[in-house]
Design goal:
By secondary structure, the protein is mainly α. The protein has one domain: Hydantoin permease, CATH 1.10.4160.10. The protein is 76% helix and 2% strand. Keywords: Membrane, Symport, Transmembrane, Transmembrane helix, Transport. It is a multi-pass membrane protein.
Length: 459
């Protein structure tokens, strides 16, 4: 890409209407199931308060610095997440080989959406089942009942889950066809406040339950004997998932930022917001678990098999269950919109195809070659494995443990060894400031070592 092309792309590209809408969009992109589904069950499995403490530290150590890495890459020439690694820098043409980082991010985005949308289908299934009586929560139920419901409605009914997943895909389509500013930004303006309202309602309800104090103690009081280097490496990896790092989301969203926007402030607010929502999600869950004697370490099924037991013991439990699963759906939607957009923006700018056609191609392709195989992996294709994992789990593993790590590592190296001084100039008006130099050297030398350590530990 020539300098003239870079200048033209910067002039033509839309920008967010305000810093607040950008932050809300990034917050929506980074919340999703990472904060509302994955974070709580990992806390339950890994010592409660010890995990929460390490997560907050990891957000400072790796999260915010990496947000800034993707910010400066995305806003540099304000194009898609593939061509962001092209053009010229410091007066020299960038090797075309760096574009493979963008393609690696695209592959990671495909893998995560392959199973992520299916989780949305599961959530819709629970909401509809509560309404139509398929899942009765008006009287106390047992773990056996919730396990049986999960088996029959998720594992044993792939056709219905396929339809619910398709419904979730169509909701995304309706918003995406209106564009980044007219669709995603406008939707997030309503969805994020709604998410906070649902979240606060659930937190207030659960922390006021009898016996909730024990759950709060488990959640906030760290058991320092559980803090190990291995756990910290694991938590650092979760931060990448929680912040949607490594698959082009922040790079793409930052490409719509104005050149005068303060990247440091937006990164700090983004990291803080993500941490706040994740921590609030814990307050929404653990007090109620301990109040009714439900084990907090039930793993990925915590939300789908353990929490319905809690709701069945609550006054107006069905109402609060619908609110909770609606919260999950809203969180999933704010994330899925932005991950889809990574692929849509790249394909549209690379092919110059009509946006609507690109959206149909992206959403339809992921549904056929990602969502349906993931759904069938809990039914007719249960025996099909990839390196010992079913298709659903394989998409999760390869995206979160390999593809995102490699892309994030490449981004840090790109900033440190390719952008060099231009990275500092993009970060702050005064590229020689102490903060800019500290961040640059930290990203150039320390962050790659951390990512390599996480990557090796996850293999």
């Amino acid at each position: 890409m020539t300098n003239m092309t870079q200048e033209r792309s910067t002039q033509e590209r839309q920008t967010w209407s305000s810093r607040l809408t950008y932050i809300m969009t990034v917050a929506g992109a980074t919340v999703g199931f990472g904060a509302t589904w994955r974070f709580p069950y990992l806390v339950g499995e890994n010592g409660g308060g010890a995990y929460v403490l390490l997560f907050c530290i990891a957000m400072i150590v790796i999260g915010i610095p990496m947000i800034l890495v993707e910010n400066v890459i995305g806003r540099r020439i304000r194009v898609n997440a593939i061509d962001s690694f092209a053009g010229t820098v410091n007066g020299k043409r960038i090797s075309p080989a760096w574009k493979w980082l963008g393609y690696l991010g695209m592959l990671g985005a495909f893998c995560i959406m392959a199973y992520y949308m299916v989780l949305g289908g599961w959530v819709i299934n629970y909401i509809i089942s509560i309404f139509n009586g398929g899942l009765v929560l008006s009287e106390p139920i047992s773990k056996e009942i919730t396990a049986q419901f999960f088996e029959s409605s998720i594992n044993g009914n792939p056709l219905m889950i396929s339809l619910y997943t398709l419904l979730f895909v169509l909701i995304n389509y309706i918003i995406l066809v209106k564009g980044v500013i007219g669709g995603i930004e406008r939707a997030v303006k309503y969805l994020m406040p709604l998410l906070f309202v649902f979240l606060i309602c659930m937190v207030i309800r659960n922390v006021t339950l009898p016996g909730a104090a024990e759950g709060i103690r488990f959640y906030l009081q760290p058991d320092f004997s559980k803090i190990t280097p291995q756990l910290f490496m694991f938590v650092l990896g979760q931060v990448f998932f929680a912040l949607s790092l490594g698959f082009g989301v922040i790079i793409t969203l930052s490409s719509y930022l104005k050149k005068g926007e303060n990247l440091v402030q937006t990164a700090v607010i983004t990291g803080f917001t993500n941490t706040l929502i994740a921590v609030l999600a814990g307050f929404m869950i653990f007090p109620s678990l301990f109040s009714f004697g439900v084990a907090p370490d039930s793993g990925p099924t915590l939300v789908f098999q353990s929490l319905p037991i809690v709701f069945s013991h609550l006054w107006a439990g069905e109402f609060f269950a619908v609110i909770f699963f609606s919260l999950l759906l809203v969180a999933a939607l704010t994330t899925s919109l932005t991950i889809y957009e990574v692929l849509i923006t790249a394909l549209q700018e690379k092919t110059r195809m009509n946006r609507r056609k690109v959206i149909i191609l992206v959403l339809g392709g992921i549904y056929l070659f990602g969502n349906l195989p993931s759904i069938l992996s809990y039914g007719p294709w249960a025996e099909v494995t990839i390196f010992g994992r079913n298709i659903f789990d394989a998409f999760d593993y390869f995206s979160g443990n390999i593809l995102f790590m490699l892309t994030a590592l490449g981004c840090a190296l790109f900033v440190g060894f390719v952008m060099k001084d231009e990275a500092k100039q993009e970060l702050t008006a005064n590229s020689n400031s102490k903060f800019a130099n500290l961040w640059f050297n930290y990203v150039k030398y320390f962050v790659p070592l951390v990512i390599i350590s996480i990557f090796i530990g996850n293999l």
